[in-house]
Every structure is written in structure tokens, then in C-alpha cells.
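Exercise 3.2. Students should predict the tertiary structure of the chain below and write it as C-alpha cells, then compare their answer with the key that follows.

Predict this chain's 3D structure.
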Amino acid sequence: MKARNVFICLFVVLTLAFSLVLAGCGDGSNPGPTPPTTPPPPNPTPPSPTPPTPSAPNPDDLDIFVLDISQETGWDYMVVGRDGSSIFFSVNASNDIPTRMFLKPDKNSDNGFTFLLKENGLPDKMIANGHILYFGNFSGYQFDLAIIYPNNTIQYFYDIQTDVNWDAYPRQGRFINFNFLAKSLSIASDVIGIGTCAVSPFFPPALLGCASYVASTVGKVVVDQVFDGFTANVANTFIDVIGCAGNIGNVFDAITVADSCVSALSNSVSMLSSLDFNLASQKTQEIAQAIGAIDGGRGDVKVTLTWNNLSDVDLHVIDPYGERIYWNDKYSSSGGILDFDNRHGYGPENIYWPTGGAPNGTYEVYVHFYDRGTSGSSNNSSEFTVVINAFGNTQTYGGTVSMNGGYVYVASFNSNGEIFRESQMPRNSAAQGLNLLRQDKNNGN
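Answer key:
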């Protein structure tokens, strides 16, 4: 009996021990005690959201779209409007100012407008329909205009009003936060606005350019993307807008047709603008005359000289006191000023007295062939034009001056506004002027 009780106690002890061993090892469902963890920071920083990737604009939704064509053509950019009108222009990369432009207002016509710009982005010349328009004397809200007609006559328009303060041009503040092309497009818009809309009362053909969609829109929109090459949707939009011809069976056909269309258009525009440049080169003397009339000083008296070649020709005016104004004495005690002295051909040369500053009496005008010029010209003579604006009256004279003759008397005028030639001039006045010039010639001047 005692032995049996001992056996039972031993069995109970072993069973308990075995149970404790199993509890310690576990069956994999109880991982045991959890090690302590680091508490989270009191104010954890939330992760930054990833900005959405902007999608490329659909050209069908744009008022205008801009193509970079600098690698394929002789132009830098092409701007296309919804109606197929377009602007081609080249840019000075150092300041983003356009240097030349061609406005093609009608996709179905070769009529267009060639623009040349001044260094500050103001319009310099516009050539259209055989006419050359010169822009100058931008001051305040005004500018002056000269129109050179195909028959070489020139018409002048002064103090044309605008809504732009040209004294603050180009307006740098306008381009803050704009993309890199905004300055170029804004200047292009101003130039086209002046060259078409502002001058249309004086040059009606300019209305065609003013009414084109691209001209009226280019300065009002912000261009978010410049397309450098064609994608499928850009190519198809371009083809639809411009009206390119070609067989389009797939994406690659559309891109090929669009590329060919850009090449053909740019070649056509280059040819048209080249014809305009050639016209300007043929009108060098007339352009010089326009520059002198527009940009040269003016007042009670204004005398402007131009000539037809690269020789160095000089303008001389003798005032009522017998004092001569010319290249070696540009300011007279009576208030006269020589502000344009051209030594490289064609002119202009300009002498003027400010308003209210010209003395009473008789003035004399002479032209002198100084030499053949600094360009190696072989010309022995020059055909000249002198425009005299005196006390409200204007006369234009022409003639020839040569190395052998030296000086040519042009005309005289007085403070009554009378402009006359030598046959009507008092003999003592003519003698005084000629004696001064003969003395000058003997002194080698």
C-alpha cells in the first residue's frame, strides 16, 4: 500500500514537470514575452505628397501654339493661330528680343509683312506691298512714321498717339514669372500692333495684318509650352489649321506631312522676306532721307541731305550772321545744330534750329563732296537730295556734286518762310556764302 502511494506521488510530480517544460517551449502560438519598443515621436511629420505630373497641353485647346523650328529652318520660331495665320521670327538669344519677323495673315495668300526691329525691340522698318514704312522718334506715348512709296515719294506723319509709354520700353516688369519666350512674344505683339493697327489709318493695307487672329492674340496669352518637333496630336492639329496637303494613313504619315509643310512654309516666307530686304537695299537713299526727317532734330529750320552712293558728302548752312554750320563746327552761336554727320554713304546729314530759336534773316544751303568715303568707293560724284523745312514751308532740291566742283549752292531761305534759288537771292548774301566756302576749300576743309 505504501509503495503504491509513493508511485502515485512520483507520477504526479513527473506529470507536472513535463507540463511546465511544454509550457516553456510552447507550440509556436505563443511568442513569449514582447521586447520593449521605442515610443513614436510626439509629432510625427507626415510624408510630403507627390505633385501630380502636368499633362502636355492639347494643341486643339490652345488659342495659338508655338513651334521651335530653329533646327530645320532659317527662323527660330513659328507662331500659329486658329485661323492659320502665322508669324515667323528670329530672336537675339542674349536678350530674347526679336530681330526680324514675317507676319502671314492669310494662309492662302503670299501677301505678308516683313518687320525689322531696333536693338531695344521697337519697330524699325516694315515692308509690305512694295512700300517701306520707317518708324522713329518714339517719345512718350507718340511715334513718327515715314511711308516710302514705290515711286520713291515719301510721306511723313508725326506724333501718332498710342497707349504705350515708349520712354519705359521695353517694359521689363511685364515679364516676371513668364516663361522664357514671353518677352519675345510680347514684343512681337507690340511691333505688329504698331506696324498694322496703329498705321492702318495712314496705310490701309496694314488692316489685313491687324485683323489676323494670330496678331490679335499673340500678346494676350501665356504660352505654357513650345513644341520642339511634332507628336501625333500636334501634327494633326497643325495640318488641320494650316491646311497642309498629303496622304495621311497613320501617325508617321501625319508627322511627315507636318514636317514637310513647315519646311515649305518657311522657304516661302524666307523668299518673300528676301524680296522685301532687296527692296530696302534699293531704297537706301530714300530710307536715309526718312531717317533724317524722322529722327533728326527739327524746329523753325530743318535741312536734311541724302545722296545715292558711298561717298562722303557734307551739308553746310550759313546763318544770317554769316556763321557756317558743318562737320567741323556743329554748333553755331545762333542756335543751329548739326546732329547727323554721315561719313559712310547715303546720309542723312541734318542741321536744324529748335522752335523759337532761329534768328531772323537769310540762310544759305550748300553741299560739298568731301571725298570718296571710307569704304574704298571709286565714285567721283554723287547725286543728292536736300529737303528744306523753313518757318512752315518745305521745298526739295536735287543735284549732282563732284570732286572737281567741290561745292554746290542749293538754295536760300529767310525767316518769312520764303525758299528761293540764287537767281532770286541778294547778290551780297550769295557772295558772302561763296567766299566763305572758297576760303574753306583753300584751307583744305
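Discussion points: The first strand starts at residue 64 and ends at 68. Helices lie at 2-25, 182-198, 207-210, 213-217, 232-242, 251-282, 284-295, 427-442.
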